[in-house]
Fold these 4 entries.
Entry 1:
Amino acid sequence: MDPLQMPVPGERTSETIRRFRDESGPVVPIELPGKVNAWLVTSYETVNEVLTNDGTLYSKNPLNFPALHDGTIPPDWPIRQVIQGDHLLTKDGADHRRLRGLINRAFTPARVAAMAPRIQEITDELLDRLADEGDVVDLVRHFSEPLPIAVICELFGVPEDERYRIREWTNVLLSNVSTPEEAATAAGELLGYLGGFIGRRRAEPGDDLTTGLIRAQEDDGDRLSDEEMLWILWLVLIAGHETTVHLIANTVVALCADPAQLAVAQKENAWDQVVEEALRSRNSVVGVLFRYPIEDVRVAGTTIQAGEPIMVGLSGAGTDPARFGGDAERFDISREPDGHLGFGRGPHFCLGAPLARLEMRIALSSLFGRFPGLRLALTEGQVPYTSSFITEGPTELPVVLRS
Ligand code: HEM
């Protein structure tokens, strides 16, 4: 089969992955911008198979992607900026376990649970301001975006007036239409900013996780290097807001499109089911980059050679009729919770899942609690979406707050 071009103009990445799954099968060759060849796994079975063999058959370390280093792929290929950092998502085995263990020590379930009152407070403040905005407001700008940014930045001590820059750099880095220059500038500025930020936190400690990491480093000098600290912040600040920003808005779109589901969620306080169903069928993480086979592998009958990059199509897995039935596309909170892969699987399973679930539940229950008649101010088909291989959500979402 000839490689299929990605992205497809005018089509969201989630739609492309689903279409490729249905038309071309569970493992398809793709061509990414810059004429870079890769593979895409599109079904629940193949996504699950690849993730389950992370660290054994597959590596996350870009050193195992020869085309990146042998001159095949140009040095300014924009995707390099997200796959070549030195963080959890580019490590395997013992290296990965060591770093994850260090972060987990700071990011304990107790610390996350203790965030609940503060997340509620930030949510309520945003909703108060939303109510003053008028009857039609852009929910992305005024709610789904500022909430996760405030939560993760507050947790790590990023000052309020600096937070929006992180959002802007993230937008450029995750977009699949950024030019090489834009991607390189955003990457350089973000790393420069984080270096300066850590320096300031060192000089002026606070009650935040960055200070916690600095203390851990000082107490036990050889364990966490300066470079590792920088990349921890890079990953956590990006992954910790981008995903949740889009999942809140995707879920609002789904609920507004089906008022009967919304009514059940409100009446039965079924927000946990809403969140799980959104992670399955409307996930903000549509594809994850990359896995590199460390030997030739057979996936659903297709041979993929060692070192050929595989993109993991989470949105294809979540809506796969072979796994979730003929109505897999339908957002239905009455489904039995049944092993979605929305937070990934295996060693790289989302480190922020408890925080994301907590934020999602508070955001949605509070939003619809305050504005029970909230509806979209445009049709579902008119909602504009981000262009990215990794994450997807509305760029703006005008809503009518009160019917
Ligand atoms: C709805 C929100 C979220 C979704 C859908 C999501 C999804 C994911 C997925 C699918 C992965 C696995 C990536 C892979 O296997 O390549 C992942 C990893 C990760 N996520 Fe999340 N995430 C969310 C929120 C968060 C938050 C709030 C944080 C904050 C700390 C976070 C931090 C991370 C980190 C650090 C990793 C890398 C873990 C590792 O490699 O060991 N995520 N996330």
Note: The pocket of protoporphyrin IX containing FE is lined by residues 88-89, 100, 235-236, 239-240, 243-244, 247, 283-285, 288, 342-344, 348, 350-352, 355-356 (CB under 6 Å).
Entry 2:
Amino acid sequence: MALVKIYDREIEYEVSYRNVKYPRLEFKTGKLLLVLPKNYGNEKKIIDKHKDWIYRKSLIIEEAKRKAKKKRIENRNEEELRNIIKKLVKKFSDDLGVKVNIIYFRRLKSKWGSCSNKSNLSFNTLLKYLPYDLIKYVVFHEITHLKERKHNKKFWEIMSKKFRDYEKKEKDLLAYWFLIQEIERME
Ligand SMILES: [Zn+2]
């Protein structure tokens, strides 16, 4: 673990040298991880290049972690989750007039859900810990991808018609993400 000072903040980070072509920065677990090609050398250059992004992201994550302390998790099993999601998929795909192929339930490492170009949906089984309205939000998000593949203007228009507070929902999802990381670490 190393520390870097960016403006007024001390930010912790880790470096991982891997067989990758390009360097990348991640905040998946809430801590900054620099994934660098094996012969990349010193990490200072890439930190400096992305310092504004790192700074902004670390603020957002800190806020999410603070919020996470006030959140409570739901006590559902995976079967209950599957039933809830199947019903929501049925309803929302009818509402939006789209067809869903297969629904998968998996332990996804870095997201709540995904949508493939074969119209298959995957949902993270960790959604079982989330309040119902956030599960609804995630399901609607993935179904909306059957209309709009990318997170473009049109996509957010559809989302915001259904969820006026979609920005808050995004923040809540991030807060839950970190809360669940904590729980998973303890188990
Ligand atoms: Zn998406």
Note: Residues 141, 145, 151 surround zinc ion (CB under 6 Å).
Entry 3:
Amino acid sequence: MTVQYTYSSLSNSQEIDRLGEITRQCFGGSPSDWEYYLNLIGAENFRILRQGEKAIAGLAILPMGQWFGGKIVPMAGIAAVGVLPEARGKGAARELLNNTIKELHSLEIPISALYPATQVLYRQVGYEQGGSLCQWELPTASIQLKERHLPMHRVGLSDRSIFENLYNQQAQVNNGNLARPSAIWSRILEPRQEEEIYAYLIGSENAPRGYIIFIQNRDKKEKAIEIRDWALLDVSAAKRLWTFLSDHRSEIVGINWRGSSVNPFTLLLPEQTAKIIRQTIWMLRIINVSLALSLRGYPLQLEAELHLDVSDNLIATNNGKFCLQVSQGRGEVSQGGKGDFKIDIRSLASLYTSFLSPRQLHSLGYLKTTPEALAIATLIFSGDRPWMADFF
Ligand SMILES: CC(C)(COP(=O)(O)OP(=O)(O)OC[C@H]1O[C@@H](n2cnc3c(N)ncnc32)[C@H](O)[C@@H]1OP(=O)(O)O)[C@@H](O)C(=O)NCCC(=O)NCCS
């Protein structure tokens, strides 16, 4: 027998409490953790799925953006997807996500991203691997840089615009970096429990070239600096920051941070002592093909045309032929064209972010095209490997 579900936003305080119970049972945490999360995300951004009268599943939608090709593309981050254990295995999560994707499409949101606990579920609704978040570790004693001519200024955390300004300059040249919503900034800047957060600007106070926000984790057996956030706009700022971190070496054994799979600033270190200890791959869904392709940026000097033929089981208007014309860094999309670049909605996600090249997708059999269109797509979607430093 097919199970009947209904999808909706939260309409009253009983439903908020009920979703709190579901979320705590699925992910753990105390009632006060749920209160904090609810206030951070906002009750209007949660959705639930009911089976009959009873809410059995929920998720959060975080409105934000993501940088691709130097432009911000509006993006819906999906988090806290949870189904009560007694209701699992019957398609409830798939139903919840299908409804969410259709709602996002009706709101003209071009893309959505999430961190999967399992790929199987999210692939079924059109998400595919889009980029990475890597956890790095570096022994403090191995840094060995001595570049102290740029000043470092300790600053307070109340004026987040100083950090936002520097962060945005760094993020715009990195595919996949978030255009951060307030909730992400709050998580970076608000201390948890008793912890002390340190923030420094690098360079002159009026025109800093970078910043670091970190905590000193002294509870661990080996004391460590955990970088909560940083931005480095040039090599002098990077050298100064490595030196600053190295100057902690008498007490602090290691430095940790989250970031890209390749960090060019680690080339300034004498040896390959900075290591990736964990990699998490986030997934992306193209919600609206035309909007997504026209809102991202493209290589500035490129004049090119790609004739896509897209298939999507869920969103009817994503199906069919689209002509993408790229000129002066912008993309224009029209219906029709030759359709000699055949791709499904999932593979288009990995292509869109530059996570996989057209050649790699072709070798997997995920793309059917001509050698000419393959060469053009390679130029259009060229770019550094996508990443983000924020987990949500
Ligand atoms: C993961 C979770 C949301 C799945 O809910 P569900 O309602 O059982 O999922 P569905 O029945 O809609 O499953 C859809 C598909 O995903 C697959 N799937 C579901 N959970 C899976 C898992 N943990 N591992 C692998 N595949 C899984 C199902 O087998 C199904 O595929 P099939 O049709 O080929 O069999 C649920 O187990 C849960 O709430 N877990 C705890 C919280 C969590 O991990 N959330 C995910 C955060 S990203």
Note: DSSP finds eleven helices and 18 strands in the chain.
Entry 4:
Amino acid sequence: MIVSKLSLVNFKNYKQLSCDFNPRINCLLGNNGEGKTNILDAIYLSAFCKSYFNAIDSHNIRFDEDMFMIQTEFSQNNESDEVLCSVKKGRKKVFKRNKVDYTKLSDHIGRYPVIMITPYDSNLVLGGSDLRRKFLDTIISQVDPGYLNHLVAYNKVLDQRNALLKNTPYGKEINLEVIDIYDGQLIHYGSAIAKSRGEFVRKNLIPRFNDLHKIISEGKESVSLEYISAVDNGNYEMALKSALDKDRSVQYTTVGIHKDDLLFQIEGYPLKKFGSQGQQKSYLIALKLAYYLYIKDQLKLKPIMLLDDIFDKLDRNRVMALLSMVTDETQAGQVFITDTSLDRVPAILDELEKEYTAFEVKGGDLNEA
Ligand SMILES: Nc1ncnc2c1ncn2[C@@H]1O[C@H](COP(=O)(O)OP(=O)(O)OP(=O)(O)O)[C@@H](O)[C@H]1O
Ligand SMILES: [Mg+2]
């Protein structure tokens, strides 16, 4: 799957753009604030119906305009689809595939596999556990629709249980029969979710992550990745029961898969506190590339890779290792790489004897360099 063509009207700092891309490697090069990341975001938005960076669609409309439009041609095996997204202030977002409107945007999401790796991903290490759960949930639900149903059902019961806890003042008797019913449902859906998460992390994520991290860091660092769940050990019912008193006092459910986390460690210590910036970045890139390889193996096609500023903070050896990996055609398909240096990435690609197209990005315009 590749993006063969992209046209933008009033999208962020682009007034008007029409561009054809290389089916393999595209370098988007230019100074800060010129519009490199915005191109990646336009592609991401075409696939996921929302910006990677800005949840409010109207914020992506060019200043002082009232609409934006993104037209993207996705191609595979000589067949092309045209995806059109337009957002007008105060109107519902329009998404079309080959000129036909979608009734449900969820029918579109996942049709064109795209993976973004950006400096914003550092939140995955530095931010709260909700981001790490979301990371897991996004991947697993892309290949297992049943998982998403379980998650939705779980969250619904959790809301109901929390509402009951909130509406029953501590010290007043709570309806234990209803709590039991909720607990039964939480255990049913939660166990399935914990099983999927645990299996996915252990079988699919960790082996790929370990291999990738070894390549990027040249085997110089010992890192680990672990799925942490209070309910992964089969004592779900007991855990809920023993937490009920605490739940009543804080008025929400304190135990369950909504508290799961991923533990990132380097040399046996938390990556967040003890990893250098380059080490955190290497870890994250290995994690996201593990995600890429998993999706590639599951879907049996190579997702489009959007690599935003990934070389910043990495030494030359790591940049080399990374570039040779993401441009290896047995591993990756089409790749978009942004960099502020006009020659760093092209020089390495020349050294690796890769074919690529370099674009200079300047003031919301793109020109082949
Ligand atoms: N809605 C908008 N309308 C007009 N311009 C916008 C809008 N949103 C963002 N911009 C502009 O887009 C530019 C940022 O573009 P982008 O993030 O793509 O830069 P970049 O080339 O990736 O820079 P860096 O190297 O710093 O990452 C900024 O100048 C910003 O003001
Ligand atoms: Mg940028």
Note: Residues 12-13, 30, 32-38, 59-63, 309, 338, 340, 361 surround adenosine-5'-triphosphate (ligand 1) (CB under 6 Å).
